[in-house]
Amino acid sequence: MILSKTTPAFGVLLVNLGTPDTPTTKDVRSFLKQFLSDPRVVDLNPLIWKPILNGVILNFRPSKVAKLYQSIWWDEGSPLMVVSQRQREQLTSMLAQEFGQSIPVELGMTYGTPSLTSGLDKLKSQGAKRIIILPLYPQYSCSTVAAVSDAIATEFKGWREVPETRMNKEYYQHPGYISALASSVKSHWEQHGQADRLLMSFHGIPVRYVTEGDPYQQHCEKTSELLAKELGLNQDQWQLCYQSIFGKEEWLTPQTDKTLISLPAQGVKSVDIISPAFAADCLETLEELSIGGKETFINAGGERYECIPCLNTNPAHMALLVTLVKQQSQGWC
Ligand SMILES: C=CC1=C(C)c2cc3[nH]c(cc4nc(cc5[nH]c(cc1n2)c(C)c5CCC(=O)O)C(CCC(=O)O)=C4C)c(C)c3C=C
Ligand SMILES: [Fe+2]
Ligand SMILES: [Fe+2]
């Protein structure tokens, strides 16, 4: 039997950061090694950084972080991976419905597996000559989106025929993103009641990246203002902060941890916390915010602390991803 192979109008590469294959010290070490060796993530002089990374960080951090991963690992695997796979499956069927034809969607992680290379290879083998790169980072940062762009450019160096590509650079103020966040907060309030304050906690980056031109902080501020407006919150009902500080450099402030410690003394006894920079629940939300953040706030005298899940496969989030693909594919169908 001869199978007729039709060329898809385009393919989609769904991108996220990546995660270790298993929550073991060995796999966490190899993930951290690849991640923290990327100059887009840590841009220090390699002569200074490599000895610190190999001699200190990769000796002590992996076993500590492996334990944290073990505390949030799911039966099916790392939460970030499991959610990403579900997003891929759902987006595939939604795009088939939307476009009336099969549009291949593959997953590519900047670090770890499945790699960006394997995602691009799978799209190539399905005949995709046009590719939409969709990094699931609403706010642009050189440490995330530019890292994707670098890795893809490097990959294409080895290809004879390079596909036509379009990359969705950011969606921090997209109406579909803001309304997906707002409906997630509202449904949380319907179930649990509204806390004294809504904290919007974004992954931090070094201040120097911002002073050197990274628009990330500006994007986080805009997302927060738009979300607060959509929810009808006034100034003292919400607050922006930055989590996941790493290393000795000065990072964006106010820090989530320090904010949580300071709130009970100001009379803020209940907090809802949302992490709009993450499209999928991961170590940083399930451990650092849900477990660590709660402990910090309660120990400081707080009474009620609730973490709002990431958008994950919420229908409004999946509909946003379809809209982003439609916008990027203008003229391709
Ligand atoms: C210099 C270090 C780091 C920068 C800059 C950074 C930016 C950044 N990261 C994310 C998203 C995620 N980061 C995650 C984990 C993580 N991040 C760093 C360091 C930097 N991140 C480390 C060392 C780790 C690993 C855990 C640890 O050792 O503490 C994750 C979670 C992955 C998972 O497996 O669940 C995500 C997602 C963004 C969006 C961002 C810049 C905006
Ligand atoms: Fe990170
Ligand atoms: Fe962290």
UniProtKB/TrEMBL annotation:
Question: Which species is this record about?
Answer: Shewanella violacea (strain JCM 10179 / CIP 106290 / LMG 19151 / DSS12)
Gene Ontology terms describing biological process: heme biosynthetic process
Task: Write down the EC number.
Answer: 4.98.1.1
Q: Name the pathway.
A: Porphyrin-containing compound metabolism; protoheme biosynthesis; protoheme from protoporphyrin-IX: step 1/1
- Short name of one Pfam family: Ferrochelatase
Per the record, what are the reactions this protein catalyses? heme b + 2 H(+) = protoporphyrin IX + Fe(2+); Fe-coproporphyrin III + 2 H(+) = coproporphyrin III + Fe(2+)
Coiled-coil region(s) at which residues? none
Q: Cross-referenced PROSITE patterns, in alphabetical order?
A: FERROCHELATASE
Any idea where this protein resides? Cytoplasm
What is its biological role?
Answer: Catalyzes the ferrous insertion into protoporphyrin IX.
Q: Does the keyword Ribonucleoprotein apply?
A: no
Name this polypeptide is given: Ferrochelatase
